[in-house]
Specification:
The structure holds 3 protein chains of 3 kinds. In chain A, 50% of the residues lie in helices and 14% in strands. By secondary structure, chain A is α+β, with helices and mostly antiparallel strands. In chain A, the strands form 3 sheets. A 3-stranded antiparallel β-sheet of chain A has the order 1-2-3. In chain A, strands 6-7-8 form a 3-stranded antiparallel β-sheet. In chain A, strands 4-5 form a two-stranded antiparallel sheet. By secondary structure, chain C is of the alpha/beta class. Classes of the chains: A alpha+beta, B alpha+beta, C alpha/beta. Chains in contact: A-B, A-C, B-C. The interface between A and C is large, with 55 and 48 residues.
Chain lengths: 359, 112, 610
């Protein structure tokens, strides 16, 4: 059979960020795929070596827009381990709050894109309308809708006092109500969505473990791994269980993310109510020396930062491994065998954040 | 599809959810919004801390000529300079900065 | 890092196979450029994600080839491609080959992440500070102020001692140019640096370290004022034999005869002089030096002239050689050495400097009821310390501005003055407006004594054979080397600069000590002790400035909020006014520990980078 090579991307209405997939097709079936990335490479790992280690937080925040707070959080965790700074408890709870806010935002954005990729525009609009509520909370507490910029080495820069916490709680409940009434019935029960997502992009449990998939991609296949279980920031106090589905197809990954949105709202409300009083920022003394690895859970999976410092103002090396980088090999297994019309939905189901991948 | 109907019906008869920016229905940003910065020339003593701390190198402090240059289009609105200035000479504008057609620079002259 | 193994390049495959058998998952691989080698660290995750990572570290030379692990872990192919392309590391056998187009295009430059271009780590440095640059002695001010704020008083005293020998004296009499340059002075609340220096001296002790090896050279110092004693201190510590010749009965120079004991208690002064003597310095009092050449012949290899400025400047009015007209330095000197001085009730002091204020307050303490200061300009131009003027007025001294004496004449055995009013005209050389007499405004005053305190000048005998400058009778000395026109003779202190302050004398004396050491064959390095103490390396967080304990002034401009000043400056507790007359007890009582720590915490530490 003659094979045709069709490019998927780099610009595609479905993709939030550019990735080039060279698809080899026989008729309508995909038989081979080669990912090519490099459209958003900015050389951040190099730029980190040129900046003062305290200013790098702002650089790391801007690696990705939708998971920006968690990049800053991971950087701060590693730098705090290297300089021996202990973060006060109130700051840790606030970091949990903003992490979950980022996660909610990211999942909602993805759910909207998924609906859009299937052509279901009205659901896309309603989901993004719910996302606006989350962005309002972010603007109210952190000062900006998308890049929160509140995490610094030694704690957080802004506080949420009791009145603001009440207001946030009210808005979270209104958001949850909107989810329950307009979005969840459609997303979870609509037959069109099920026909386009169930059974597409199968990833078995063994394949997920061998390929090193992380995040909802692997949790949708039954691998119950979530780095929040290690208890960084205040997750030990708040308590946490990962959300797992066993089917291994795109619909399972959708369900994982939808259920995680509800879990995030609960975690946010819990973190705000359990916050102890105290200071939120501690002075940083000393310079980073030694090596360490910091791991956190991004909306897309596990984020690993490797630090090396040599006692001066600049870090010697910072290596960032983002979750999408680990999830791209799963495309090599999921895509062959499916039809061309399923390619957008399957590619989107790993939640590609290429800006993170290419740093 | 049938489950979307109640929402669609409701939205057909209610106000549009989008705002006609920048002409009508503009919501003011919440307090604490991070925007452009302004320098207070009476309080500044040209120590240069803000320029040292800025991650984007958007501030230049010239001690001999007693002036400060600020590049709003390099600025990332992180508000680190506001918090670093010990004399309290930098303030933030809490309004959204609209897009501009040319890159401007701002020059402040500090009296002795 | 924990859970790490360092292996050779050849053992890589077997180590990874072991991890594969334990069902570990692949995390990532980090590559670090070490200059001549590469270090590649593989991070693996164990079966349970809550367990810490396991690491394998491999170090290879730049030309060696590494085996790929992508046959076992397919996902490692991506990161190996990146390492291969960005670092130019040779890795063989990668399962997925992107043909050098992974994160790069054909036009990308080579070796993106290799060092050293332009990696230039900045070692932590300290910035120049305005207070430190204003100090003539070069004290590390932010460091000692913050050490007091942290409660480490002994280390703080050691930091001060790095730069000058007499913190006890300067903590009481220094005019503190540093405080005027403090950045908080813009908000009217400069740090009380001088009070903290006094606190450090009062509450901690310092042990002098052993002096250097004796060099066998001998130095003679003429004059035991602040300049002479400072130079003696440093020269003795550098190992030279020092002898000081002092013409007055007791050592101390202007510190003893010019500064009254209610500002500088005699015990403090004697303790500091004792400290210098304990270093092996010999002080010969009541010995007037007539000629410097005899000193050089007597076996001294170098001589430092630090005679100060004790000669009073004549007022230039008719009749001023009346016996009841005293020179202020003679008057204060007599009081300092315990001689009886009868002033009477009505005393007039002419002049506006610190000497005049000191004379006036001393006269009050000796029992005079009415002490008036006559100054020919206004308060704004008075050169005396503003705090001293305040205290004088509080104690009851009257100051007549814009008045000067015109004639002195005898009246019934007592003395009377004819004064004339002045008005300010055009500015003169010192940029102050010149006073001009107003015709016909003369007025007569009956007084019991007159003290002339309009200025001092150095007095240098002819036989010294050194060049004297034209203005103010000062010795001409090179700025860097303090050398005079004769070889082997150096000069420092008020004798060179004209009447100045204690700390400026200390500054010139330090330069002279370095210069004399070089002249005598040494290295010219002042012995400075290094102090190792755990202290902060960054400033306060901005949130600490916002805490409730600190008084905060908030201003709102155009809807945005800016916060300005912090706590107010500490006030020095002083002796109540009722207890002052009749006695020479010290007026300033000293800070308590809480006040000192609070004041030290206020310092912004402008010398730290962030």
């Amino acid at each position: 059979m003659a094979r045709t090579v069709i490019p998927f991307g780099p610009q595609h209405p479905v993709l939030p960020e550019p990735i080039h997939l060279k698809l080899e097709l026989e008729d309508e079936k995909v038989v081979g795929v080669t990912p090519i990335i490099g459209y958003v490479h900015r050389g951040i790992e190099k730029a980190v070596e040129l900046n003062d280690f305290r200013q790098n937080v702002f650089l790391c925040e801007r690696i990705c827009g939708i998971c920006s707070f968690i990049h800053a959080l991971t950087y701060c965790e590693g730098a705090e381990a290297l300089t021996g700074v202990e973060v006060p408890p109130r700051a840790r709870f606030l970091r949990v709050f903003w992490s979950e806010l980022s996660r909610t935002h990211s999942h909602l954005l993805w759910l909207g894109l998924l609906a859009d990729s299937m052509g279901f525009e009205s659901l896309f609009m309603q989901i993004w309308r719910a996302r606006e509520m989350i962005l309002d909370i972010s603007e109210m507490t952190a000062g900006h809708r998308i890049i929160q910029s509140t995490c610094v080495i030694g704690g957080v820069r802004r506080d949420i006092d009791k009145e603001m916490a009440k207001e946030v709680d009210k808005r979270l409940l209104a958001f949850k109500e909107m989810l329950d009434s307009t979005i969840a019935p459609v997303l979870l029960h609509d037959p069109t969505i099920k026909r386009r997502a169930v059974g597409k992009g199968m990833l078995s449990k063994e394949q997920a473990e061998l390929l090193g998939a992380v995040g909802p991609t692997s949790r949708g296949s039954g691998v119950a791994i979530d780095i929040r279980q290690t208890g960084y920031a205040a997750y030990k106090e708040v308590g946490f269980e990962p959300v797992v589905e066993t089917a291994g197809d795109s619909y399972a990954r959708t369900l994982v993310r939808a259920r995680e949105v509800y879990q995030c709202v609960e975690l946010m409300r819990k973190a705000l109510s359990m916050m102890p009083d105290g200071e939120i920022l501690v002075r940083v003394d000393g310079y980073p020396e030694g090596e360490t690895v910091a791991r956190t859970e991004q909306p897309r999976g596990e984020l690993i930062y490797y630090f090396r410092g040599n006692g001066t103002n600049n870090l010697e090396r910072l290596k960032i491994r983002t979750p999408t980088f680990a999830n791209i090999p799963t495309l090599l297994v999921m895509l062959p065998g499916c039809e061309m019309a399923d390619v957008p939905v399957i590619t989107l189901s790993i939640d590609p954040c290429i800006a993170c991948t290419e740093r | 599809m049938p489950r979307m109907f109640p929402t669609i019906w409701k939205n057909l008869f209610s106000r549009p959810a989008t705002r006609r920016y920048p002409f009508k229905d503009i919501r003011e940003p919440f307090p604490g919004y991070r925007g452009k910065i302004y320098f207070d020339t009476n309080k500044c003593d040209l120590c240069g801390d803000c320029a040292r701390v800025c991650p984007a190198e958007a501030i230049e402090v010239d001690l001999e000529n007693r002036q400060i240059k600020y590049y709003p289009f390099r600025c990332i609105y992180c508000a680190t300079c506001v918090q670093t200035c010990l004399q309290g000479a930098i303030t933030e504008d809490e309004h959204y900065s609209p897009p501009n057609v040319e890159k401007i620079e701002e020059l402040y002259k500090i009296e002795a | 890092m924990e859970n790490e193994i360092l292996i050779e390049k050849a053992d890589l495959i077997s180590a990874v196979e072991k991890l594969l058998a334990e069902k570990a998952r692949f995390g990532t691989a980090s590559c670090v450029d070490l200059g001549d080698k590469f270090e590649i660290i593989y991070h693996f995750e164990p079966q349970e994600s809550v367990e810490p990572l396991k690491h394998i570290r491999v170090v290879i030379d730049k030309e060696e080839t590494l085996a790929s692990i992508s046959s076992m872990y397919l996902c490692a192919a991506l990161i190996e491609n990146e390492i291969q392309e960005h670092f130019n590391v040779q890795i063989s056998g990668i399962a997925l080959d992107f043909q050098k187009r992974f994160l790069r295009s054909k036009e990308s430059p080579e070796s993106a992440l290799l060092k050293p271009i332009p990696y230039a780590p900045k070692p932590p440095a300290r910035l120049p500070v305005r207070c430190g640059e204003a100090c003539p002695a070069g004290i590390d001010i932010p460091r000692y102020v913050r050490l007091i704020g942290e409660g480490k008083f002994a280390e703080s005293l050691a930091v001060i001692k790095q730069a000058l020998p007499f913190p006890g004296i300067l903590g009481r009499v220094c005019f503190a140019p540093c405080e005027d340059n403090c950045r908080q002075a813009k908000q009217e609340e400069p740090i009380a640096i001088r009070m903290l220096k006094r606190f450090a001296y009062d509450h901690a002790s310092y042990e002098e370290k052993a002096t250097a090896k004796q060099s066998g050279k001998r130095v003679a110092i003429v004059g035991s004022g602040p300049a002479g004693l400072t130079a003696a201190y440093y020269l003795a510590k550098m190992g030279h034999g020092v002898t000081i010749f002092e013409s007055l009965p007791q050592a101390g120079g202007m510190m003893r005869v010019g500064i009254p004991s209610y500002r500088l208690p005699r015990k403090i002064l004697d303790d500091e002089i004792e400290m210098v003597k304990n270093l092996g310095v010999e002080i010969k009092t009541n010995t007037r030096v007539e000629s410097l050449d005899t000193l050089l012949k007597d076996g001294y290899q170098a001589v430092l002239v630090a005679t100060g400025a004790h000669q009073g400047i004549k007022m230039g009015v008719e009749g001023e050689d009346h016996p009841k007209v005293m020179e202020c330095i003679d008057f204060l000197g007599d009081v300092a050495f315990g001689k009886m001085v009868k002033l009477g009730d009505a005393v007039v002091v002419v002049g506006g400097g610190n000497a005049a204020i000191d004379s006036a307050r001393t006269a009050l303490r000796l029992g005079s009821k009415e002490v008036t200061i006559l100054y020919r300009r206004t308060r704004a131009e008075m050169p005396a310390n503003p705090e001293e003027v305040e205290e004088a007025i509080k104690e009851g001294v009257k100051i007549e501005f814009l008045a000067a004496p015109k004639k002195v004449f005898s009246k019934n055995g007592a003395i009377a003055l004819e004064n004339i009013r002045m008005k300010l005209g055009a500015p003169d050389a010192s940029r102050r407006r010149r006073p001009e007499p107003i015709e016909g405004s003369e007025f007569k005053v009956d007084v019991d004594s007159v003290i002339a305190a309009i200025g001092q000048a150095p007095e240098v005998p002819e036989q010294f054979n050194i060049e004297i400058g034209r203005f103010g009778n000062v010795i001409v000395a090179e700025g860097d080397t303090s050398a005079t026109s004769q070889e082997g003779i150096f000069a420092a202190g008020d004798a060179v600069t004209g009447p100045a302050s204690v700390v400026e004398a200390v500054g010139t004396a330090k330069k002279a000590a370095i210069s004399i050491d070089i002249y005598l064959g040494g290295r010219g390095v002042l012995p400075v002790e290094e102090i190792k103490v755990k202290e902060p390396t960054s400033r306060h967080t901005f949130l600490e400035r916002w805490q409730e304990k600190r008084e905060v002034e908030v201003s709102i401009v155009d809807g945005s909020v800016s916060v300005s000043v912090e706590k107010k400056r500490t006030e020095m507790p002083s002796l109540p006014l009722e207890e002052r007359p009749g006695g020479f007890d010290e007026v300033e009582l000293g800070l308590t520990e809480e006040m000192a720590i609070a004041e030290g915490q206020r310092c912004w530490r402008c010398d730290l980078e962030q």
